[in-house]
Give the backbone structure.
Amino acid sequence: MGTTPGAIENHMSFVLVCFLLSFFWLLLNLITSKRKTIYDFSIVALLLSFAGSQITPHTEGWFPYAQNKLVLVDITALETPKIHKNKQHEMSPFDYREQQVAFLASISPVHRGRPTTATVVMRGIPDIVKGDVFQCPGWFIKSTQKKHPRFYTTYKTAKVEKKPLFQIEALDPQQTTLFKAIFFGVRDSGWKNIANLFRTSGMSHILAMSGMHVALFVLVINIFCIKKNRVTKLLALLLVTLFLCLFVELRSPLIRAVSMGFAIYCTGSLYARCKNISIVSVVLIVILLIDPNQIQSVSFQLTFLVAGALCVLLPQLTWAFIGPKNTTASPRVQCQRKIVTVWIMGLCAWCTSAPIVAYVFHTISPSGIISNLPAVGVLTIAIFFGSINILLYFLTNTTFLVTTIPLSCGLTALLCVAETTQKIPYTHFDSVYPTAIVSVMFFILFAVWCTVYTKRKFIYLATIALIIYTQKTDTAGSATTTITTIQVGHGTSHVIQNNKHAVVIDAGSRNNIDIGFTKIIPTLQKTNVKTIDLLLITHADLDHIGGIPALMDTVPIHTIGLTTQAVKNATVPLHIILRMAEARGIQIQTVSRGTTIMVGELVFKIISPNSKKPHTTKNATSLVVQLTTNAKQVLFTGDIDEHTIRSLDTSLLTPDIVELPHHGQWSKESQLFIDSLCPKIVLQSTNKTRHSKDRWIIPLNTERYVTSTDGDITTTISESGEIHIVGSKNPATMVKCLSHYFY
């Protein structure tokens, strides 16, 4: 509520009521009550945020007029470009794509429109670093599947050197990378390895400048103050803010942290009696009042979710673990309590953020529970001595070995903590795909556990039941068949599942030779495919087999089926696949017309080609497969040509679902083929270029689904034979087919 942008003309009266209600509510409570003003302000700000977001049109700025047009833009690089190196694998010799880089940037048209965040994609390897500002022409493309729109350009700019405040020569390369990241937010050439190490050890928050770093910097500055009062606290906060503004990029997490710090300081200075959660709420709502779209940012959500949990749940969690504070305890006991409190704080932050991280980033690192206490402690030491080095550099324009050695030890200790934690088994998991409901349920269970002191056994039982539910491998029921037609651009890949059996028909793409790694394997992981019982290869074109080596390296495959003609006239890529299959002990089965293969309840019948048919082209002898499941029939046609289409006896075929031949390439024969079959559904796996040249006339009672507009297409055939189809994105407006054609 209060964060959905866009003008709603039909609800202007409701918006007016929100404004009036908020005004009189605030006025009334300011007059009659002082204790709960902070809560009243929160309620009013929510109403204002909602009303303001409704009457403020959400303009897409330069999006509409830049779509598919050449535009000149101003670009500010928000990160150093990452080279998208073409993966080295068995099919790499057939990869002729030019190397690309991509980076997040703030983009705005020259002399027009407000800036927007987008991913810039450039060919080659341009000399660009984070913070560079330049102009370049290019094309803007907005995608419903990408978090940020993409801007494509071939511009190459001269390199602009950007260095941190200073560099300590005594540090080794790893320590230097860590020092730059912690103190200046700079990501140099060694960042990738360090980031991966810290990610798998649950210490990613150490590398990213955040509210924790701001708090530690303020703490360190206060240590140097002889007298500690409101003035010194303000001075420390101002010094940290000045340092961040001058030498560190002020990204959203830092701005939120500094805003929170000033809000806490102002509240304490005014002797206002309010809870920390109220301060967090005020800062949150003020940010939403300024920019309601912030609610869509994962960083924003995690920031305030964790901050709110530390305010509300941490006291309850501390009570549950170590009980109330004992002011008369010995210094040793109090010190132990503080150490345990820091660990509990990390535990609370991890339990709060882990469900969201797993849902958004598909990864979870329980190692963070182990590493948070030593990591934060060592980070504090590193910041302490790092701050001394920065101060000495300001005063003397040099650094001293006596302060550099402790800093080096602190950075080394951070690396040791990360490396040690990373080696612990079962502390990091990739390819985790919880649903939104499951993620929310885990968070709710944790919150309830913290606040409920009795009957916790029911929470334990609910948690165990939820874990068991998330681990189930049957995604659609034991008798239900699910066919996932993956969006691979110009190419084909179908994943068929029934009970615990999985069959894959083709796996390739002409646009992307790495499609196996980038799309097909993640889809198999998301659909819980552990083993492929049968891999059918319709023919040996790269857009049908380019991703198979990646599958063979990742997922166990029992059998590969392909035509006799393909084996006898194997291309170089197919030779590679056959050699890999032999090395891995995968059975090779040649199939032809009349062959029937049963995989569980799935029945595959080969319709074409005949084993004695002469090989002329790969498409001419492409495999045609009929799947029978739950009394329904699905026809996969591969890239059969016009001659093969004419030779098929359609009177013997009664398919409910048909794959359009050759990625939907229109011909008189293929049109007659579809008209004679008149299926309920046709599937088309193709890219936007071929779809834009569409000439099909689809029968009136037939629905068509196209990967270029519908994304991944999931076809579900229930035990009763009911067919349900959905796409992974909202279908774009279908290009209108021509109203006439000639036979």
About this structure: Residues 173-296+365-433 form one domain. Residues 390 and 399 are 8 Å apart (CA to CA). Confidence is low (pLDDT under 50) at residues 1-10, 55-65, 473-477, 731-743. The chain is about 45% helix and 15% strand.
